[in-house]
Amino acid sequence: MNKSKKALIIGGSVAAALLLTLIIVSIAVSSSPKTLVLNAAANTIADARKIEALTVANDVANGGSVALSANLDRFAKGDMTVQGKVYTNARNLKYAGELTFSDGKKKVLDAKIIGNQDRIIFDCPELVDGVYGVDIRKLEKNLPGSIFDPDEETRYSLNYDRFDFFMALRNTIKNDRNLQRDVDAMALKYEKLVIEKMLKYAETKKSSETITVGGDKIPCTVVSLEIDEEALANITKDIIDYAMSDDSLEKLLDRIAANVAFDDDPGELVDEFYDILEEMEDEVELIEKDDIDITFDFYITKTGRRIAQIDFEFVTEKEDFETSLVLGKNVAKTTEMSFEAKDVKYGSGVSITYSVKENNSKSYQAEIKLEEEYLRNDISSTKTTRIKIDWNKKDGSFEIRTKDKRDDTYSVKGILKKKGDCYIFTATRLVVEGDSVPAVKSIGLTLTIDRHDPTPNVHGRYTEITKLDERSFKRFLNYIGNGSMDFMNDYFKQTVF
C-alpha cells in the first residue's frame, strides 16, 4: 500500500474518531442538567407564545381594537345605541378611544381621543366647537408660564411632581418605543440567570419517570435540584450582585419609572428598588443561619424536550410548603394543566385544574376546577368550585356557568363567533344566584375584539390647550360638562338619573 493511501486511511480514521468524539461530547453536553433545563424552559416559553389567547392579545395590543356596544332603548327617549371602542398600537405608539351614541342611524354624540408619540387631541363637535389638543413635543416650551405652571399659582396649576412628569413626557414617550419588548427580554434574562445560579450551587440528580397528564403517559427525564441554606445564600448574593451592576437594568427601570411617576419623583422610585436590593443583600447572612431545604424537580419530556411538570418544596424548622405546576407535553396543545400549593404544616392549600374535554372545528368544552382546603379546629374541610365553558363553534352558542357552595347558579350565555380577524360575543342571558337578569337580552351587550384594526390618525389642526388662559380653559371645561348634561336630558329618560 503506498504512502498516500496509508495517509488517507489514517487521516480518515482520525477524522472519524474526531467526529465520533464530537458526537459523544455533544450528546453529553445536551443531556447535562443545566442544558436540559434551560433548553426545555426555552422550548416551553416558545410554545406558550403560540397559545391562541396570547397571540390574539399580542395582535390587539399592537394594532387592534376592543369595542363594547349596547342597545339603550329602555333608558332612552328614542332608538338609542352606544359603542365604546379602544384602539391600541403599542408598537407604533398610537392609541385612540371613541364613545359614540346613535339615535337610529344618526350619530348624536361622537367623542374621540386620539394620540401618538407627538400629539393628543380631543374631538367632539356635539360638545365643543373645534378640536382641542396638546403637542407633546412642545410641552417643555409651552408649560412654563402657562396656567398649569405651579409657579403661576392659578386654579389649574399642577403640583410640582405632576408638572415635572409632563415636562419630561416627550422623552418618556420617545423612550417607550419597544419598551414592552425590552421588559420581556429583561425578564427572560433574569429567569435564565436564576436557573443558571440554581444549577451552579444546587446538588443535581437525574432520573427517569413516566407521568400521566390528561390521560397521556409522558416519559420524562427528571432533573432534581437540592438547595440548602448555603446554596440559597450564594444564589441570592450572585443575583443581587449582578443586578446591582447591571447598567441595562438601571436604564430600563428609569424608563419604567418615567411612565408611572405621575405623583412621585421617578429617580426616587428607582432608588427605592436599589434600596430593597441592598436590604436583601444585608439579610443574606440571616439565610445562612437558617436550616433550609429546597427541592426543585423538573420533569422534561424525553421527546420534544419540554417542561411537563415542575415540583417545588420549601422546608424550614417552621415551614413546609409544596407546589406543583403541571403543563403536559406541549403547553399550547395540552388538554390539562394544573397548579397546586399546599401548606403541609397547617394542612391548608389550593389547587386549580384546567381540563379540555373537546377542542376541534365544531366544539370547545373545558372545565376549571378550584379546590380550597382548610383546617379549622383540627377539622379539615374542602370547598370545590367548578367553572364549565361550552362553545359550539358552528352556531356560536356559548356558555360559562358555575355554582357556589349554596348551590346558587351563576352563568353567562351568548353567541360567540369568529369572523375573519374578529371575535364577536353578544350576551343573551345572565343568571345571578339562580335568577335571570331580564335586561341583558334587550340590551344586546356585544363585545368585539378585532386583531387588526388601524388606529385613527391625529387631526392636523387643533387648538393648543397649553396656550389657553384661565377664562378660555374654564369655558372649554364648561362646554364639556354642560354639553354632557344637555345631551343626557335631551335623549334619555329622567329615571336614568
pLDDT averaged residue by residue: 87
Instruction: Tell me the radius of gyration.
Output: 30 Å
Percent strand: 35-45%
Number of strands: 21
Give the low-pLDDT segments.
Answer: 3-12, 18-30
Distance between the termini: 107 Å
The helix content is 25-40%
* Overall SS class: alpha+beta
Q: What shape does the CA trace take?
A: globular
Our count of helices gives 13
Largest sheet at a glance?
A: 21 strands, mixed
Describe what this molecule looks like in 3D.
With 497 residues, the protein is of the alpha+beta class. The chain has helices at 3-30, 33-48, 52-61, 139-142, 160-167, 169-174, 179-201, 229-244, 247-260, 266-282, 284-289, 439-443, 470-491; strands at 62-71, 80-89, 94-103, 106-115, 119-123, 132-135, 203-213, 216-228, 293-301, 307-315, 320-326, 336-343, 348-359, 363-376, 379-392, 397-403, 409-419, 422-432, 435-436, 446-450, 463-464. The longest helix has 28 residues, at 3-30. The protein starts with a helix and ends in a 6-residue tail after the last helix.
Pick out its properties.
13 helices, alpha+beta
Question: TL;DR of this structure?
Answer:
The protein has 497 residues and is an alpha+beta fold.
Record the SSE blueprint.
Elements: H1 3-30, H2 33-48, H3 52-61, E1 62-71, E2 80-89, E3 94-103, E4 106-115, E5 119-123, E6 132-135, H4 139-142, H5 160-167, H6 169-174, H7 179-201, E7 203-213, E8 216-228, H8 229-244, H9 247-260, H10 266-282, H11 284-289, E9 293-301, E10 307-315, E11 320-326, E12 336-343, E13 348-359, E14 363-376, E15 379-392, E16 397-403, E17 409-419, E18 422-432, E19 435-436, H12 439-443, E20 446-450, E21 463-464, H13 470-491
Parallel strand pairs: 6-21
Antiparallel strand pairs: 1-2, 1-20, 2-3, 3-4, 4-5, 5-6, 7-8, 8-9, 9-10, 10-11, 11-12, 12-13, 13-14, 14-15, 15-16, 16-17, 17-18, 18-19, 18-20
Helix pairs in contact: 2-7, 7-8, 7-9, 8-10, 9-10
